[in-house]
């Protein structure tokens, strides 16, 4: 260890133990040099933090200031023990362990900040869930602490590691569902198929993303209820994002008219109804199709594009009102007892099966 070669050096060239004035001079020099190094390093880190978008000053600089000061004080104390020839094994071992732990803490904190917060968070836009970060740090710190204590004291830490492995396996089996949601949440954060504020359709449920956690995602439905969906279900289910690649989405509005109505007149009424609504986009232009005929009625589908899926209920209601007024003006009778059915699509994704309004 460091005190051994230092003690041998002073014993050979100066003599042990060193005089008090000399020891105090060396200790004072170490403290002053450590303070100057501390100020230089943390001044550079502070300037770097001001050029980034992350709060590196809070995440790294402030957390490392106190351990860095304590470290150079322990180094000075270590030098004092070596120069005075103090052979107390307990004190020397404790000082060595504390020094190594402080060095390990500074290195781990620096790596965590630069890798997780700066490189992944700021550069790559990947937000690591807090629970994942805490579990990762717990494993790293456990391995580092056991390794340092084992190397300094000579204690065999293999049985401790074996015991911790067994405990980890037991906890993993007990928390299988929770861990499945956790890793599914991590995958969702990495791939980012949706974000807060997006309207999505997942597992037959339409809702706006309120928040994305490590275990579940919270959706607010059109009835303003908040539904909590486990991330493992989202990862397995078919997902449709109405806000990807942009907020423009297509809607299909279906209506029925009597069999004796002229298709050309019905199509003209439908196009006029679309043109009368400012919320319906002119590009792409609305489309009207005659999609079915029976001995009693004709079935038409009007496809429109709108700018915001969140307002589709209001827009479709206004369109149906315009269709009703246009059919009345042209003398077109709507199918008696027919209930319009609505369906939705976004981009090139599949159409949701039509449902009757509640």
UniProtKB/TrEMBL annotation:
Q: Where are the transmembrane segments?
A: 20-45, 95-119, 131-149, 155-175
As for subcellular location, the record says:
Cell membrane
Topology term for the membrane: Multi-pass membrane protein
The record's listing under Pfam families reads: MS_channel_2nd, MS_channel_3rd
What superkingdom does the record give?
Bacteria
Domain Mechanosensitive ion channel MscS as annotated: residue spans: 177-242
Arranged from A to Z, the UniProt key words for this protein are: Cell membrane, Membrane, Transmembrane, Transmembrane helix
Q: Which residues form the Mechanosensitive ion channel MscS C-terminal domain?
A: 254-333
**Chief place where the protein resides:** membrane
Q: Does the keyword Membrane feature in the UniProt annotation?
A: yes
PANTHER family the record matches: INNER MEMBRANE PROTEIN (PTHR30566:SF25), YNAI-RELATED MECHANOSENSITIVE ION CHANNEL (PTHR30566)
Question: What is the similarity comment for this entry?
Answer: Belongs to the MscS (TC 1.A.23) family.
State the name under which the record lists this protein: Mechanosensitive ion channel
Q: Which organism is it from?
A: Hyalangium rubrum
């Amino acid at each position: 260890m460091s005190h051994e070669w230092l003690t041998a050096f002073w014993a050979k060239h100066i003599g042990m133990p060193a005089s008090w004035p000399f020891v105090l001079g060396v200790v004072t020099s170490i403290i002053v040099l450590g303070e100057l190094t501390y100020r230089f390093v943390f001044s550079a880190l502070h300037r770097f933090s001001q050029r980034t978008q992350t709060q590196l000053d809070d995440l790294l600089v402030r957390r490392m200031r106190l351990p860095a000061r304590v470290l150079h004080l322990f180094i000075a104390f270590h030098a004092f023990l070596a120069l005075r020839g103090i052979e107390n094994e307990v004190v020397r071992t404790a000082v060595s362990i504390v020094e190594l732990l402080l060095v390990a803490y500074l290195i781990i904190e620096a790596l965590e900040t630069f890798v997780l917060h700066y490189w992944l968070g700021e550069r790559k836009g990947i937000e690591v869930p807090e629970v994942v970060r805490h579990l990762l740090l717990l494993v790293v710190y456990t391995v580092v602490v056991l390794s340092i204590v084992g190397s300094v004291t000579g204690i065999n830490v293999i049985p401790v590691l074996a015991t911790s492995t067994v405990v980890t396996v037991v906890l993993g089996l007990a928390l299988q569902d929770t861990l499945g949601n956790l890793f599914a949440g991590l995958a969702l954060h990495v791939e980012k198929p949706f974000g807060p504020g997006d309207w999505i359709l997942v597992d037959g449920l339409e809702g706006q993303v309120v928040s994305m956690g490590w275990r579940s995602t919270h959706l607010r439905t059109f009835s303003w209820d908040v539904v909590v969906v486990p991330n493992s279900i989202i990862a397995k289910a078919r997902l449709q994002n109405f806000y990807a690649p942009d907020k423009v989405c297509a809607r299909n509005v279906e209506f029925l008219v009597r069999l004796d109505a002229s298709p050309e007149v019905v199509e003209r009424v439908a196009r006029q109804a679309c043109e009368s609504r400012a919320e319906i986009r002119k590009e792409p232009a609305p489309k009207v199709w005659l999609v079915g005929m029976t001995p009693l009625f004709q079935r038409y589908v009007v496809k429109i594009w709108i700018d915001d899926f969140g307002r589709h209920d209001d827009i479709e209601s206004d369109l149906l009102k315009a269709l009703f007024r246009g059919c009345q003006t042209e003398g077109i009778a709507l199918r008696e007892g027919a209930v319009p059915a609505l369906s939705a699509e976004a981009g090139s994704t599949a159409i949701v099966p039509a449902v009757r309004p509640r």
